[in-house]
Amino acid sequence: MKLLVIGSGGREHALAWRLSQSPRVHKVYVAPGNGGTDRAPTLENLPLQDTGALIEFVRREKIAFTVVGPEAPLAAGIVDAFRAAGLRIFGPTRAAAQLESSKDYAKAFMVRHDIPTAAYATFTDAAEARAYIRAQGAPIVVKADGLAAGKGVVVAQKLDEALAAVDHMLGENGAFGAAGARVVVEEFLDGEEASFIVMCDGQHVLPLATSQDHKRLLDGDTGPNTGGMGAYSPAPLVTPALHNRVMREIIQPAVQGMARDGIPYTGFLYAGLMIGPGPDASRSLKVLEFNCRLGDPETQPIMLRVKSDFSETLEHALDGTLDQAEIDWDRRTAVGVVLAAAGYPDAPRKGDPITALAPDTADCVTFHAGTVTDNGTLRTSGGRVLCVTALADSIRRAQQAAYDAVNQTQFEGRQFRRDIGWRALAAGKRHD
Predict the structure, then answer these.
(1) From start to end of 222-363, where are the E strands?
(2) Distances from the Cα of 146 to the Cαs of 143, 153, 383, in angstroms?
(3) How far is CA 35 from CA 4, 59, 308, 370, in A?
(4) Which listed residue, 25, 131, 199, 245, has the most CB atoms within 10 A of its CB?
(5) What is the pLDDT of residues 193-239, one digit of tens each?
(6) b or e along 2-17 (b: 16 or more beta carbons within 10 Å of the residue's beta carbon)?
(7) What is the largest CA-CA distance in the chain?
(8) What is the pTM of this model?
C-alpha cells in the first residue's frame, strides 16, 4: 500500500522512515518533505501543501491513509477536510486541535476536567497583564495564546523579562500577530520535564515509549529556549508507577473530557509534564502544555525504538481498535542530538552546504529537518537542520554512538549540545 505523511521536519522524516520499513508499504509520500526524505529510496517528496490538491492526489493515487505531522495543518482543519472527502487520515479535528492551538482553551479545559496544571490568567490588554505580573512576582511564565512555532513561551526569571515578553506579544506590533493577541500568564513550576505521548482513537489510548527532550540551546540546560536540541528514550524519570499516575490523572481524564465536551480526540496527544521531587506516589505532577502531534525531537528516538509494524498500529487507530494494538519496543536506549544552523534560534542562517553526513546504519540514523536539495547539493534551510539518532545498550553508549556520528557531520556554523541525556546519566538509573 501507499501512504502519505504531511510535513517537512525531522518528526515527519522519522515517521515516514519507520512506516517505510513495513513489508506491506510500497511507498511513503512526504508532503512537502525535505532534503533527507528526497534522498531516501523508499520515500518520495510531494511538492503540495494545499489541502484540496492533497485530497485530489490521495484519491488519484489510492493512498491507504494519511498521517499529519505538524500542528499548523491540524489547526487549519485538514483532518476535517479529508474526512468530509471520505479519506482516512490520522490526526485531531480542528476543534480538538485547540488543545494546542489555543493555550487559553487548553488551560480552561484542564481546569474544567480536573487535570493538574499551573495556576494562570489570560489577558488581551497589556496593562492588565503587566499589573498581574507585578502582583505575582517572578519567576513567572508568559505564553502567546496561539501557535508560534515553538517560540511563544518565555520563562522569565526576572520581572523585567516578563514585562518585556508581554510588550513583545501584546504591543502594537506584536511579534506573533494573531497568535499573540492574547497571552496566558502562568505560575512558574519547578521540577523536571518529561514528554508523555500517546495515540488516541476517540475512545482508546495506546501510550508510546517515554522520552525526555532538552529545550535550552546550551549545555547544562542554559541559554535561550528552542524547539528542542535533542532527546532520548526511554526516560528513567518516568518509572512504571509514575507512568500509571500519568495515565490515570492526566491522559484518561483528557481523552474522556474531550469526549464529554462532544469533541472525540483522535491522533497523537503529547502531554508536556513537570514532575516534582519525591517518592513517585506523592511527587507533584502537572501539565505544562498539550500538543496535538508527536514531539520533535522526541519522535526521532521513539521511532528508532519501534520494532513492530507501525502501519498496523496506525490502522488500529483509524479503525477505533487501539485497545487491540501493541507496539514492540527495542529495549535499548535511543539518543538523538540536534544539529542547528548558525544563528539559531533567533536568526537561523540558511543555505550553508552540508559537506559531510555520517552513514546510516541499523542502529544510527540521521533524520533531516531543515535541509533542502539544491541542484544536487544538500543545504541548510531551517533552524534545526539534522537529528543524529543512535541506539545502544545504555544511555552512555547511545550518547557516545550519537556523538561519534555527529563528529562525522559537517556544515559551517553548526550548533549542537554536547550533553544530551545528561539527566538520565545523573539519575544513576542506567549503568554500563
Answers:
(1) 222-225, 230-233, 266-275, 285-291, 333-340, 354-356
(2) 9, 11, 21
(3) 17, 26, 27, 8
(4) 199
(5) 999 999 999 999 999 999 999 999 999 999 988 999 999 999 999 99
(6) ebbbbbbbbbbbbbbb
(7) 60
(8) 0.93
- C-alpha count within 13 angstroms, C-beta hemisphere, residue 412: 6
**Coil, strand or helix: which one is 355?**
strand
pLDDT at 426: 86
Q: How far apart are CA 315 and CA 327, in angstroms?
A: 13
pLDDT value at position 432?
Answer: 40
> Residue 345: CA atoms inside 13 Å, Cβ hemisphere, count?
16
Residue with cell 535511543: 334
Residue count (the chain): 432
Full strand arrangement of the beta sheet holding 65-68: 43-45, 27-32, 2-7, 65-68, 89-90
Instruction: Give the span between the Cα atoms of 149 and 225, in whole angstroms.
Output: 12
Q: Is 344 helix (H, G, I), strand (E, B) or coil?
A: coil
Sole residue written with cell 501543501:
49
pLDDT by residue (tens digit) across 284-324? 999 999 999 999 999 999 999 999 999 999 999 999 999 99
Count other C-beta atoms under 10 Å from residue 274's C-beta: 20
* 363 in Cβ contact with 392 (< 8 Å): yes
Contacts of 229 (CB under 8 A, 6+ apart): 213, 214, 215, 216, 217, 297, 337, 338, 340, 384, 416, 417, 420
Sheet holding 230-233, edge to edge: 212-213, 230-233, 333-340, 384-392, 364-368
DSSP 3-state assignment of 273?
A: strand
Q: Taking the CB of residue 224, how many other CB atoms lie within 10 A of it? A: 13
Q: For 62-150, where are the alpha helices, taking DSSP H only?
A: 71-75, 78-84, 98-101, 103-112, 126-136
The cell for 6 is 504531511
Nearest residue to 12 via CA among 232, 300, 214 = 300
Residue 427: band (very low, low, confident or very high) from pLDDT cuts 50, 70, 90: confident
